[in-house]
Structure to design on (455 residues):
């Protein structure tokens, strides 16, 4: 199998590394990639949002599978063009990718499918936004309806700040969703779908805020960990039954089957599971942690989904280790990241036992030096027998790397490792979780204390 991965970031580097470990994959290439990916596989310049250019490259390379990483090429119709050219593609059509490209569309699908989610209103002007904010009250949740690279959400107690975010979206020609605030910890679950069948990966939790203690502005994600030892038994089964399969069936009913990864962003509230959002691709940085633990060959799984054969795919197997991913970001991220600063110590970090470094925003300058070229620069992934050990490995790796003004959180997976994360008080019996062992990818255990992860 010759696989072409489309995308430039850390998620794509994680996919590339996992594909390289697949004995059935004979060749891996990436476009456009980054400096870290280029050290592992050949990379190619391409405008990923030009479907014709993506098809031309796949044909030139003789690719037998194309994996699309980011949301923008999906929204541009790259998967449609590849499918029309007869090239197996892992990633949803433009119509199916509307689940991410339009939050209002996703709400419509959830309503039709009976999927539990937050109450919401769509607003297209200041007056409508103000009315919705007053209807739901604080904390205020305002989401840009379109693609915003994971940073289009404001959650605040300040009504003026919420309204200002809505106005900025209107000024850009967009609409907003204003939602009720969902309490409880958040969970990311990737569900691989071939349009009819679905396979869940291991649940993960990410950290959106820039600073320790979930403080500061939203980012694309500053770290993640998996597994989640505090999840109740039956969690994954419950999500598949109440969220993933109803959504996949509704998309198929509409004539727009969903092929790819349905990213389910979930809140575990006192009233049970609620969907915060859907994404139409692997999440970043959760992918870096999740794929570090996957033993099943990734190429075969993605090819089965792309060709409608997921029902015959082998059962997934996972390493018993925990994985923690810590993101190193540029100075001034997420507002106005400083780019072009040299990186040092990456090779030393990768030489540590249980540590891998996945590149996101890196490139080579004219002198051949490794430099930052994006807001999120690297993800350092640590593997260990349990979360404490995985955290230790990840942070030992981070400590080896230097970047002027670089930022990272020091509390990724800390509360979970200390046993301080759990279901909200009063959840018992309300979430519909099936008692007993789940046939989820993880043995799940109950938590003890509520954790308010940021949206």
């Amino acid at each position: 199998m010759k696989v072409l991965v489309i995308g430039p970031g850390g998620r794509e580097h994680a996919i590339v590394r996992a594909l390289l470990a697949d004995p059935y994959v004979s060749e891996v290439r990436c476009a456009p990639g980054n400096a870290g990916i280029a050290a592992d596989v050949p990379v190619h310049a391409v405008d990923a949002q030009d479907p014709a250019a993506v098809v031309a490259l796949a044909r030139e390379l003789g690719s037998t599978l194309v994996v699309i990483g980011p949301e923008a090429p999906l929204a541009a119709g790259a998967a449609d063009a590849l499918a029309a050219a007869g090239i197996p593609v892992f990633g949803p059509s433009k119509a199916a990718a509307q689940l991410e490209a339009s939050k209002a569309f996703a709400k419509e699908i959830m309503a039709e499918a009976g999927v539990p989610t937050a109450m919401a209103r769509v607003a297209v002007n200041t007056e409508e936004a103000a009315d919705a904010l007053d209807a739901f009250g604080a904390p205020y949740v305002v989401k840009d309806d379109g693609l915003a690279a994971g940073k289009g959400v404001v959650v605040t107690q300040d009504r003026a700040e919420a309204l200002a975010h809505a106005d900025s979206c209107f000024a850009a020609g967009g609409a907003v969703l204003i939602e009720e605030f969902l309490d409880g910890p958040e969970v990311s679950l990737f569900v691989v779908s071939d349009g009819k069948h679905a396979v869940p990966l291991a649940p993960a939790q990410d950290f959106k805020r820039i600073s320790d203690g979930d403080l500061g502005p939203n980012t694309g994600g500053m770290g993640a960990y998996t597994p989640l030892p505090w999840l109740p038994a039956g969690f994954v089964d419950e999500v598949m039954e109440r969220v993933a399969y109803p959504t996949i069936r509704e998309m198929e009913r509409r004539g727009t089957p969903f092929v790819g990864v349905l990213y389910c962003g979930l809140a575990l509230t006192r009233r049970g599971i609620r969907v915060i959002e859907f994404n139409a691709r692997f999440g970043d940085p959760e992918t870096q942690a999740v794929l570090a633990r996957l033993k099943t060959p990734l190429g075969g799984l993605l090819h089965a989904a792309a060709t409608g054969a997921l029902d015959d795919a082998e059962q997934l197997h996972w390493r018993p280790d925990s994985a923690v991913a810590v993101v190193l970001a540029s100075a001034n991220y997420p507002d106005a990241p400083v780019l072009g600063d040299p990186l040092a110590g990456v090779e030393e970090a990768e030489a540590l036992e249980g540590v891998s470094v996945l590149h996101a925003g890196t490139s080579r300058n004219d002198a051949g030096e490794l430099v930052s070229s994006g807001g999120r620069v690297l993800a350092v992934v640590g593997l260990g027998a349990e979360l404490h050990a995985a955290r230790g490995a990840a942070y030992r790796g981070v400590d080896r790397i230097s970047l002027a003004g670089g930022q990272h959180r020091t509390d990724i997976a800390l509360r979970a490792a200390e046993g301080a994360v759990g279901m909200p008080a009063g959840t018992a019996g309300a979430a519909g979780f099936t008692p007993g062992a789940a046939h989820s990818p993880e043995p799940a255990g109950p938590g003890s204390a509520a954790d308010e992860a940021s949206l």
